[in-house]
Amino acid sequence: MRTNIITHTFYPNVFTTRKSIEKFQPGVKLSPHVIHELLEMASLAPSTWDLQHWRFVAIQNQMDKQRLFPIVYHQQQVLDCSTVIIVLGDEEAYQNAEKILNQSFKKGIISQQTKESQLEEIQQAYRSDANFRKEEAIRNASLAGMQLMLVARDKGLDSCMLRFDSKMLLEELNLPPRYLPVMFICLGYAAKAPKPSFYIPLEETLLFEI
Fold first, then answer.
1. Fold entry, domain 21-191
2. Which of 130, 40, 42, 53 is nearest to 96 (CA)?
3. Domain residue limits, the chain
4. Would you call 168 helix, strand, or coil by DSSP?
5. Do 144 and 88 form a contact (C-beta atoms < 8 A)?
6. Residues ≥6 apart with Cβ < 8 Å to 176
7. Which helix (DSSP H) or strand (DSSP E) does residue 188 occupy?
8. Smallest Cα–Cα separation from 131: which of 182, 91, 183?
9. Residue 8: predicted pLDDT
């Protein structure tokens, strides 16, 4: 039997041009419309059972960014970037399951029986295992964070992730314990080109033969 092998040609795009920025142009603001658009696109990321575990905190005020400065170990990017986006993972995202499944049912995407069985499956998984809730919150919120940085690059913006102290951040934001800080992302315009990156060859990261 003949096997058709499909090949693709990849061109430079957001995936190859997105780099972590060490220095942003200070004093540049993003409009609320742009921020909303970026976050709406980031929210199209995939998630387990479509529970959409991510929550966002958007910060532009310079005084607020100054309070975040020690939380990110005094990394200058937080002060110079246009906007800080803190990506949170919701350990109780399963509480939205019924609302989400009802929408799929009303649109005829799933049957009543499927809705009820999926709801029961979700409730059992999340209520019985605290570690599962944490892992799912981090895993799915990370997908939205990565999508945010790619969308930003597509819009001509630059980004970087910063290390942060989770405990200090939770105290500063005064968040309920259901939310886990997952990613601390700075958005803006690069003041200088990023350093070249070294990537481990695929031969070292591909564990199984194609």
1. NADH Oxidase (3.40.109)
2. 53
3. 21-191
4. helix
5. no
6. none
7. strand 179-188
8. 91
9. 53
Distances (CA, A) of 202 to 15, 59, 157, 205: 16, 37, 28, 5
Q: What is the mean pLDDT of residues 151-161?
A: 96
Global pTM exceeds 0.85: yes
104 is written with which tokens? 């799929």
Torsion (CA) 86, 124, 50, 84 in degrees, nearest 10: 0
For residues 141-162, give the mean pLDDT: 97
Report, as an integer, the average pLDDT of 176-201.
93
Give a three-class secondary structure readout of 40-53: HHHCCCCCHHHCCC
Residue 181's nearest CA partner among 84, 86, 49 is 86
3-state secondary structure 76-134: CHHHHCCEEEEEEEECCHHHHHHHHHHHHHHCCCCCHHHHHHHHHHHHHHHHHCHHHHH
What is the enclosing helix (H) or strand (E) of 161? strand 158-161
Per-residue model confidence as pLDDT tens digits over 189-200: 999 988 888 889
